[in-house]
Design a protein that fits this description.
Elements: H1 26-30, E1 39-41, E2 45-46, E3 48-54, H2 60-73, E4 86-91, H3 96-107, E5 115-118, H4 128-138, E6 142-148, H5 163-180, E7 183-189, H6 207-211, E8 214-219, E9 227-234, E10 240-247, E11 252-258, H7 269-276, E12 284-287, H8 289-295, H9 303-312, H10 314-321, E13 323-330, E14 333-340
Parallel strand pairs: 3-7, 3-8, 4-5, 4-6, 6-7
Antiparallel strand pairs: 1-2, 8-9, 9-10, 10-11, 12-14, 13-14
């Protein structure tokens, strides 16, 4: 989980308008260290905008309540490791009385101070962005916002929704997610018509999925079935099919099995060595690429190749080893900082 004392790359913000095309060469791309994608739930949920879709009354809101609680508590979710973070759940089709009954039945009454609930919010064209910005500024530990449902925050218009309008609304949410490095999940419905590709069943145009960073489809064979299938697709995660079962007693979804064996990237010996520089009591390492090569006892690699290898693997260094990597170009070469992430307990 991120904190304000962590070192990050100084990414150059994209201007809202430019008269010339901004392009970088491939070496310039390799020479830049970008902020690592944040995994709230490993191989399941990262920073960006995701859609959860399914037919009405299939348990989507229970699933989102469960996911919100698990992230806020840092509890494993469907056999996936969770990074604890504060969560804002906009349950816009409920009232506080219903939420009180739902959460107490699901998780008891002890509560979790990292989970915030709201049942009213403006639409995107009437102040939602300002509301979310204000909340995130007051609760900077928030890394997940759930909006239930998408229809409640759409701009009111008599015009039919088009690919452009669908793409636009997700893009607005992506700008908010990118600006604050958070994840936003929007709950939506599927259409009744079956499709060969399950994700083509998301209500609306393909502009929704086209703009989103990922999507989840919750389906049952029949409305009375306890078991459901959760299909997941995304840019930063492997395609998955998870079988879950709804418990009437606790109103929670129970993991049954995953129909895919997730591929695990083999260990990278260079990252192992670099992570070891900030192991034990030493939490920060700082120096040039040449100094790092010396400390790693590597004499068959050029310094700029080292920095490029680390620049392109900043995500793995962060996710696999809990090490933040910052590379600042200096007059006399690179100025590298490594910082070990302190282990958090829920």
């Amino acid at each position: 989980m991120q904190n304000d004392n962590v070192f990050y790359p100084n990414n150059k913000p994209s201007p809202s308008y430019s008269s010339s095309l901004e392009a970088v060469s491939l070496p310039e791309l390799y020479d830049t260290a970008y902020t690592p994608a944040t995994a709230l739930i490993e191989n399941f949920l990262y920073s960006g905008v995701y859609i959860l879709a399914g037919p009405p009354k299939t348990g989507k809101s229970f699933l989102m309540a469960q996911l919100a609680y698990h992230v806020a508590a840092g509890m494993e979710f469907f056999n996936h490791k969770v990074t604890p973070a504060s969560v804002l759940y906009l349950s816009l089709e409920d009232d506080l009385v219903r939420l009180q009954k739902r959460f107490s039945r699901m998780f008891g009454v002890e509560g979790n101070a990292n989970l915030y609930l709201a049942t009213k919010a403006d639409s995107l064209n009437q102040g939602l962005e300002e509301q979310l910005t204000e909340f995130l500024q007051s609760k900077p530990a928030t890394k997940l916002i759930i909006i239930d449902t998408l229809q409640r925050i759409r701009e009111f218009s008599s015009a039919a929704y088009s690919y452009a309008s669908d793409y636009h609304i997700i893009n607005l949410l992506k700008e908010i997610a990118s600006r604050h490095n958070i994840c936003i999940i929007v709950v939506h419905h599927t259409r009744k018509m079956e499709a060969e590709d399950k994700f083509d069943m998301i209500s609306g145009t393909t502009g929704l999925l086209g703009a989103a960073d990922g999507a989840m489809i919750l389906q049952k064979k029949s409305r009375t079935d306890k078991r459901a299938q959760l299909n997941i697709v995304g840019r930063e995660l492997p395609d998955q099919e998870i079988i879950i079962e709804f418990s009437q007693e606790s109103c929670t979804w129970q993991f049954i099995r995953s129909n895919q064996q997730l591929w695990e990237e083999p260990k990278d010996m260079l990252l192992e060595q670099v992570a070891a520089l900030v192991s034990g009591e030493k939490k920060i390492w700082r120096g040039s690429a040449t100094q790092m090569l010396h400390d790693l006892n590597i004499d068959d690699m050029k310094s700029h190749i080292l920095t490029r290898k680390l620049n392109v693997k900043v995500d793995r260094l962060f996710q696999d080893y809990g090490v933040y990597y910052h590379n600042k170009r200096a007059n006399k070469g690179s100025d590298i900082t490594l910082q070990k992430l302190e282990a958090k307990t829920a």
